[in-house]
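[step 3/7] fold_predict: job queued, chain A
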Amino acid sequence: MTAKATSGALCASIFFLILIHNVSAHDDPFEDKSIENSAPPGTGGGGPYPSVNMNLLGHLSLADIGGGIGILGSDIWGWTDTLTGKDYALFGRTDGTAFVDISDPTNPTYLGDLLSHTGNSVWRDIKVYNDNAFIVSDGNGAHGMQIFDLTDLRGVTTPAVFAETAHYDGFTKAHNIAINEQSGFAYAVGTNTASGGLHIVDINDPLNPMAAGTFSADGYTHDSQVVNYQGTDTDYAGREIAFNSNEDTLTIVDVTDKSSTDLISSNGYANSRYSHQGWLSEDHRYFFMNDELDERNLNQNTRTHVWDVQDLDNPVYVGFHESDLGTIDHNLYVHDGLIYQANYTSGLRVLEVADVGNALFTEIASFDTYPDNDATTFNGAWSVFPFFDSGSIIVSDRQNGLFVLSLQEQDGAIPEPATLPLLALGVTLSVWARIRR
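[step 4/7] structure written:
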């Protein structure tokens, strides 16, 4: 990163701180990502873990967090207790959800489990709203949506088996769930309703969820990010917009009126094989998408696809960034201008945007949670959660369990997140001193 770019990124961060203190064959549970086609738990669990510009703060194997024979990891999400400020990892397993206190990231503490509402499944996805976890599962009978009051974790010192606090049965299975924390609505996708599209639930009262609407006009949705839109398209300013990865398209939907959702646009791209998941840039100008099957089916390296969505009616496919590795990309998230990718056998990759308009990125950090190989298989890192204010980054590995990481400081280019408030304070005092002169 150049000094100019470093200065610009730092100033942007400081300014921000000052201002605000139907299932396809791909989803068949007996296909690629099933237990039968995965390496056994614990593969590579002893390390070492190749890394660049990353700190390994803590690691718990699947066995350490309640995983038994034949059990694999899946999704992960984070929660920060609004009362105590403690950070927690919510780790999906084949048979339930594990809860881990990572408030001391060098000493993660397993607190216990919420068992699956029905049977076992390799798909279990978790999101959080208002101190409650919302958990769905695919290929798992009438699982519905589990709701767990996370404040029940306060004071727990001995691993326990917890009971779900509430349950929603408006659908049976769901492949994933998105939550817009600004509006208080959950969006289950890949359910047995709405042709696999959006199944919308009002969770403003988390323990009394209410069906609110659906969107089915573009069929199956694999994943979604739903936001109160703050981008440049004034036609949709302030409206609630869903950005859906719909197997072969980016499908954008206005979900402001839950009883009358509206398709804005649906667009594909060349050589698509499975539009899996994606995340917006923080200014809502670009959408970064992964394609889960192009590496296997086209024998190519990992590609991160870029959409310019400044005009929601006419999004433009910009192109793709191609990695040096050919591993399968799974889930990515954007935080503080960086793209955090869980890419199965190559683990966590962190990308910095060099020229987003031309899909040019630089890989600035990595941590290989699955050091056995970089094969084009569905073993390894499933997901990543990079949103803790503390700077902790958590990764779920299907075989190797929970990793607690942080970015290393790189010659001032990537300050540790915890130092940013101090930098902001320093700059503020400096500016104030100049004004006083």
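[step 5/7] annotate
The first helix runs from residue 3 to 20.
The first strand starts at residue 51 and ends at 52.
exit 0
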